[in-house]
Write a structure and sequence with these properties.
The protein is α+β, with helices and mostly antiparallel strands. It has helices at 30-37, 64-76, 126-133, 160-170, 220-223, 258-265, 292-302, 360-364, 377-380; strands spanning 18-22, 43-50, 56-61, 82-83, 86-87, 89-92, 111-116, 139-147, 150-157, 189-193, 208-210, 230-231, 237-238, 244-250, 273-279, 282-288, 306-308, 312-319, 334-336. Residues 17-95, 242-322 form the RRM domain.
DNA sequence: AGCACA
């Protein structure tokens, strides 16, 4: 069959502008290829780290004669071609041009395309982005936008070198947690190059900046709200109303869980999202309603009230500057009731270290207008087994409430969450049967409905019924 | 040391 009639010698190839190099060190860079080949002519393209061992490469000369000169030089040279001390074998490639598999994002340039994973546009201010990327050189312009890929930013530097330095340092890293809103979990940066060379920024706004042009008109409507806090006549900060409430919980003698908060705040309308976190040793929570009116009603009704009788777990409510929380749909510290509730299992990446330990403290003070809450990532780690039976909360530091008025109403079926439970919320069921919490008051379950006087547990004299701390489920009593 | 992810 194969008459092995070698109509061409295996090692003899027709000349090509493209040279095939092998036996390269696997660390070889394009720069080293250029260094090696440049003496023979103009290199128009390279491709290194080719092959399973990443030890082959291609170099394309502008002119065929240049390639020929290199091959013939080393064919008769006593000194072999070398890269990092390794002898490099050179021959004509059997192709005549290098096909760049380089995706556009790999072509270096002075503008970076940054995807900030795991956050929404409102979570990372343009000032934080500016802060982070200024560590590598003067940032000329920033434009942010939301695409299907998520929240993205174009960062324009003076040159490709600076951009490359920033990319190398930051790609895959995370923005330091203290620069982020308290509810943000992990937040990884994916950085590629943009094809842009010069961004066209029309306004200074909360979405785009041109740091080279202070005269640029300011889009106030866009910049307000995001950055400026209103100051009242007495000099006190007036917090603009928001659909998201920030709750500080004083005298937290008993556990205040997501479920407890959901029960309490659902009395005034649909609770969309909840995030619990610690700030300065105090427990705080963000509660998101669909609208400001509902939030205002809840704030009015609940401010200064206690979740449990006896002055325990007293709520202090303010408006958050957030409008849409970005929270893990199901964890022990956060809940998103707008998505189907399935216990999260696969979050193996709970924390990323700070990016620049050395510069971090200096950066902290520069964040504009931020409630910079410290946030212990370990508290945020996803809890996959969420079984509310007595004794299954090893870190539960709280004692049972003194006045278990909720005990009578709990039913086993609704008082346990297991991993196998599929907990699906939709608009109509939201807030009615919250697993882990037994309800015995007629809360107004769904959004939009005005609070019925007396329907809020906190407006009654008794502690909040239905807010049974996990681990103290009454069906065992 | 031998031709490029499909």
């Amino acid at each position: 069959m194969s008459t092995s009639t070698q109509h061409q010698f295996r090692y003899t190839q027709t000349p090509s502008k493209v040279l095939h190099l092998r036996n390269l060190p696997w660390e070889c860079t394009d720069d080293e290829l250029v260094e090696l080949c440049r003496p023979f002519g103009k290199i128009v393209n390279t491709k290194c780290n080719v092959g399973a061992n990443r030890n082959q490469a291609f170099v394309e000369f502008a002119d065929l004669n240049q390639a020929i000169s290199m091959v013939s030089y080393y064919a008769s040279s006593s000194e072999p071609a070398q890269v990092r001390g390794k002898t490099v074998y050179i021959q004509y490639s059997n192709r005549h041009e290098i096909v760049n598999n380089k995706s556009p994002g790999d072509v270096p340039g002075n503008v970076l395309l940054v995807t900030i994973e795991g956050v929404e546009a409102g979570d990372v201010s343009i000032d934080v982005i500016h802060l982070v990327f200024s560590a590598f050189g003067f940032v000329h312009k920033i434009a942010t936008f939301e695409k299907t890929a998520g929240f993205q930013a174009l960062i324009q530097y003076t040159d490709a070198e600076t951009a490359a330095a920033a990319r190398n340092a930051l790609d895959g890293r995370s923005i330091p947690r203290y620069l982020l809103p308290e509810h943000v979990g992990s937040c990884h940066l994916r950085i590629s190059y943009s094809a842009h060379r010069d961004l066209n920024i029309k306004f200074q706004s909360n979405r785009s900046r041109d740091y080279t042009n202070p005269m640029l008109p300011v889009n106030h409507t866009a910049i307000d709200g995001a950055l400026q806090s209103v100051v009242g006549p007495d000099g006190k900060k007036i917090e603009p109303e928001s659909n998201v409430l920030l709750a500080s919980i004083e005298n937290m003698q008993y556990a205040v869980t997501v479920d407890v908060l959901h029960t309490v705040f659902s009395a005034f309308g649909t609770v969309q999202k909840i995030a619990i976190f610690e700030k300065n040793g105090q427990t705080q929570a963000l509660i998101q309603y669909p609208d400001i009116t509902t939030a205002a009603t809840a704030k009015e009704a609940l401010e200064g009230h206690c979740i449990y009788d006896g002055g325990y777990c007293k709520l202090h409510l303010t408006y958050s500057r957030h409008t849409d929380l970005n929270v893990k749909a199901f964890s022990d510290k956060s809940r998103d009731y707008t998505v189907p509730q399935v216990p999260a299992v696969s979050w193996q990446n709970p924390q990323a270290g700070p990016m620049y330990p050395g510069t971090a403290p200096a950066l902290q003070g520069q964040v504009p207008g931020g409630q910079m809450l410290s946030w212990d990532p370990s508290q945020q780690a996803a809890t996959q087994s969420y079984v509310s039976a007595p004794g299954t909360y090893p870190s539960q530091p709280y004692a049972a409430p003194p006045n278990p008025v909720y005990a009578a109403a709990a039913a086993p079926a609704s008082s346990t969450i297991t991993q196998s439970n599929s907990i699906v919320h939709n608009a109509s069921s939201m807030g009615i049967t919250q697993p882990g919490v037994s309800l015995n008051v007629n809360l107004q379950p769904t959004g939009g409905s005005p609070p019925v006087p007396g329907s809020s547990p906190l407006m009654q004299a008794s502690p909040i019924a239905g807010a049974s701390p996990p681990g103290h489920q009454p069906y065992f009593t």
